[in-house]
Amino acid sequence: MATKPVLYSYFRSSASWRVRIALSLKKIDYDYKPVHLVKDGGFQNTEEYREINPMRQVPSLVIDGHTLTQSIPIIEYLDETVADGPDLLPKDPVLRAKARALAETINSGIQPIQNLSVLNKIGETKVEWAKYWIERGFDNLEKMLEKTAGKYSVGDVVTIADLCLVPQIYNAERFKVPTSNYPNIARIGENLEKLPEFQAAHPSQQPDCPEELR
Amino acid sequence: MATKPVLYSYFRSSASWRVRIALSLKKIDYDYKPVHLVKDGGFQNTEEYREINPMRQVPSLVIDGHTLTQSIPIIEYLDETVADGPDLLPKDPVLRAKARALAETINSGIQPIQNLSVLNKIGETKVEWAKYWIERGFDNLEKMLEKTAGKYSVGDVVTIADLCLVPQIYNAERFKVPTSNYPNIARIGENLEKLPEFQAAHPSQQPDCPEELR
Q1: I need a surface site. Which of A137, B67, B157, B207 has the fewest CB within 10 A?
Q2: What is the CATH number of domain A93-197?
């Protein structure tokens, strides 16, 4: 790798967090560029950042001379191109499909309906709104995990599904969803929390995390 | 393939439609099982269907002895396991990442916020809600396509991004979003409409399409 990759990230963004875990598992050293999603109307909405990411979202990863966006495609790219570290997806096509389906259940089924821009649009009732969709999503996800989980979401190895699960559990807790109602989700979350690569990617460990949340 | 694949689908579901295009491009013969999302509270909400798809969504594809869910993972699976037909993702890792990012911009960035269950929850203002998110999403998508598009979304070959684009244009039209405001989206949509595999996958061609919409 000629130059060090650059990650445009926000400490509490779920999608940035997923990519931070992937970079950490793949042992990739990178520069962290904070994108504040709230202050001054959000740096993601500036023309400067929009040149980097037309979707006005984090993360963006500058790597191998290209700027990549969207967390799942970035994770797939790292899995395809970086030999170091563990695989982020299983080799078996059916298990890959299961891991991806769990990841998408979170990435497209839960997170987008409770993300910052949707909650701003919902306004006053945003806490109930977020809680409703996370509970509904976790109810479904728990049922999927009954069929696939071992120590982690798909058997006993970490996959892309786990990279999505941990930030979603954090969001659930922010919106007072009792994760103890979902025994598989809670157990897998606890197992993942123990891994140093997941600890390093936690919002509290990022340079843009405010002192009071550390 | 020992037994014929079975697709659980709803004629107007975007995610089902994407998979129908993939099956059509990959020349896979399959049985079509309609899942009515509206009638009698929705067949997807029955315990019978939930055994097939715990997320209570379409599509589900029964193939090679497994039941797969979530459109993007199903398309990735078909691309990895079926030699017939064209590739659904480019071979080059950077182009794969670009195609996937466009697909996710629709799959996780637009469609979930305007899907049936969210609109039902929004209630009275659902048409304005859907229009707002599709316009915002198309504005972003158009900006991404300026950098990637040729005849189709990524250069001149059909990719997973195009499989997502066509159903999203149909939704935009349903919610009165003027697609002519987005020259790349409109042009690519017109090019894709001409392909027989896309024509075969259109809602109007499905067995569960009501007579009046044919």
Answers
A1: B207
A2: 1.20.1050.10
